[in-house]
From TrEMBL:
Belongs to the RbfA family. It holds the Pfam family RBFA. Monomer. Binds 30S ribosomal subunits, but not 50S ribosomal subunits or 70S ribosomes. One of several proteins that assist in the late maturation steps of the functional core of the 30S ribosomal subunit. Associates with free 30S ribosomal subunits (but not with 30S subunits that are part of 70S ribosomes or polysomes). Required for efficient processing of 16S rRNA. May interact with the 5'-terminal helix region of 16S rRNA. It comes from the Bacteria. This is Ribosome-binding factor A. It comes from Chitinophaga rhizophila. It is found in: Cytoplasm. Keywords: Cytoplasm, Ribosome biogenesis. Signal peptide: none annotated. InterPro entries: KH_dom-like_a/b, RbfA, RbfA_dom_sf.
Amino acid sequence: MQESKRQKQIGQLLQQELSGIFQRMGFNVIDGGMISISSVKVTPDLLEARVYLSMFKIADSHEMVNRIKERMGEIKKELGNRVGKQLRRIPELTLFLDDTLEYIFKMEELFKKIKEDDAGRENK
């Protein structure tokens, strides 16, 4: 089912505000790695939001998600202060890992290997 215009608007608003909160809390750059919010999908009733986190050069991404979940109360409070005027209720946030970036790197590596194999066959 396709998202409504309101769902998309709320998703974009939450993504912007959560990005700002993550920067303030120091979650965007950790140990030489980066965390960004790739997207936020909101349910039709606007009561739940799926927050997709993209991690780059983070050693243990599941551990990092757990560290963020530990501070979820603080994150929701800050989010409520920022978007309380636009929303009646702050959606329940659920964190998910977005492995698109990892998938792209794996695919590039495979293509590079195929290209090298083809070049090796041509030289024979």
